[in-house]
Specification:
binds zinc ion, about 5% strand, 16 helices, 4 strands, globular
């Protein structure tokens, strides 16, 4: 007889996957339907050719996502009901035991899943991104990135897994609380070491050169009462022509990083406005809120795992014949996203509210008109669609649609 949880799992997986495909299909249809003309508010800012490029790019990318959803669904079924985890368990258990077994099992799942994703990742970078002129990566750089990521996964992943599996075995009933404390500490540590130890493995960071740009930015920082331990330019252009700016670190270890591609595209007042938006995320405490939310969610999930770990129906329902902590961890992280996808609009909703607040902050401390100019240039340059499907947007977009952001900013423009 099929266990009841198997039915629940398969039904949830099929529904979630079909729903995700339907969202992408709707999005594609919506973008295509608006391909013929630049939307009203943008007609004098964006050319028809750019608008159509953005539509085609969106459609092409959505297609690869649909393929990706299909692969993900099959791979998940393969690991669970298809017997993949049972087989890997048998292989690891034949040669290893204790913590070494657990680490081997989890890393095995991670590396095999990454290998399955690889062809599509290559297609995305060297076919889709290249077709629109965004790819700047050479195959050699792609391979060296992959090797560095794998090495990092081992150097960081092995000790973390050893610690987590040990805590799960040694701390009794309340292990999930200890794992949670460890997890929070580990995340804070990574946040702290990322800018100085990890990011430089992948990119070169050079101090922002003196000049008009730097003077402007320092004035903005002073105006916003912001301290940081440096302004840097990152060679983002070696991978992609998409531009960006971001903050890393926390406390006095904060760094502001500009992609060289962003500095090339935007005029100094526009860059100032983009940075003011990023400062807004700090000043309005979004960064802290997001971190607190992530910690609270991980506590809830670890508690839930604590309830499932000794339940035979959890393993049997997912087609796994053995029962241990490493298998429970793997199953949990493979299966949880199937059940949490319906809640993703909650996360996007919060994130969009934060974006509006950061825009308002930028309008107050820099210039709304400059931010609008910067946004239009970035949308244009990144071939981001101006006409997303509203329902797709609700599930997937962390940023409000361009038209809404710009409409709000225009209201806030100070008279010249
Ligand atoms: Zn933002």
């Amino acid at each position: 007889m099929t266990p009841a949880f198997t039915t629940v799992f398969v039904a949830a997986l099929v529904l979630t996957s079909l729903f995700r495909v339907w969202l992408k299909w709707r999005h594609t249809r919506h973008v295509r339907a608006h391909r013929a003309a630049v939307p009203a508010g943008f007609a004098d800012r964006i050319g028809l050719a750019s608008h159509q490029k953005a539509a085609d790019y969106t459609v092409d990318r959505s297609r690869t996502v649909i393929i990706d959803i299909g692969i993900e669904t099959l791979v998940l079924l393969g690991w669970t009901l298809g017997g993949g985890l049972d087989a890997l368990h048998a292989l690891c258990a034949a040669h290893l035991d204790g913590l070494a077994y657990g680490v081997a099992l989890i890393l095995g799942v991670g590396f095999i899943s990454a290998a399955i994703d690889l062809p599509l990742a290559l297609y995305r970078q060297f076919v889709v991104e290249a077709r629109y002129g965004f790819n700047r990566m050479t195959p050699a750089l792609f391979l060296s990135d992959l090797a560095k990521q794998a090495a990092l996964a081992l150097v960081i992943g092995v000790p973390v897994l050893l610690a987590v599996l040990w805590l799960m075995g040694a701390m009794g009933e309340g292990w999930w609380l200890y794992v949670w404390l460890f997890w929070c500490g580990f995340n804070l540590l990574i946040l702290f070491v990322w800018p100085t130890w990890i990011a430089p493995l992948f990119n070169k960071f050079s101090p922002l050169p003196d000049g008009d740009m730097k003077t402007r930015i320092e004035a903005l920082l002073a105006r916003c009462g912001f301290r940081s331990s440096g302004l840097f330019v990152m060679d983002g252009s070696k991978r992609s022509s998409h531009g960006n700016a971001y903050f890393t670190g926390f406390g006095d270890n904060k760094r502001i990083v500009f992609f060289d591609t962003l500095l090339d595209k935007l005029a100094p007042p526009e860059i100032e406005a983009v940075l003011a938006h990023e400062l807004g995320h700090f000043r309005r405490r979004h960064v802290v809120q997001r971190m607190a939310l992530a910690f609270a969610t991980s506590l809830a999930f670890l508690w839930l795992l604590g309830q499932l770990i000794d339940a035979p129906w959890f393993y049997a329902g997912l087609g796994v014949g053995s029962q241990n902590t490493a298998l429970a961890l793997v199953l949990f992280f493979l299966v949880v996203p199937v059940f949490t996808f319906p809640f993703s609009p909650l996360g996007s909703q919060l994130s969009r509210r934060h974006e509006f607040e950061a825009d308002a902050y930028a309008a107050e401390h820099a210039s709304a008109a400059d931010l609008v100019r910067a946004l239009v240039k970035l949308y244009d340059d990144n071939a981001a669609t101006l006409t997303p499907d509203p329902l797709h947007s609700l599930f997937h977009d962390s940023h409000p649609p361009a038209a809404q952001r710009i409409a709000r900013l225009q209201v806030m423009e100070k008279p010249a």
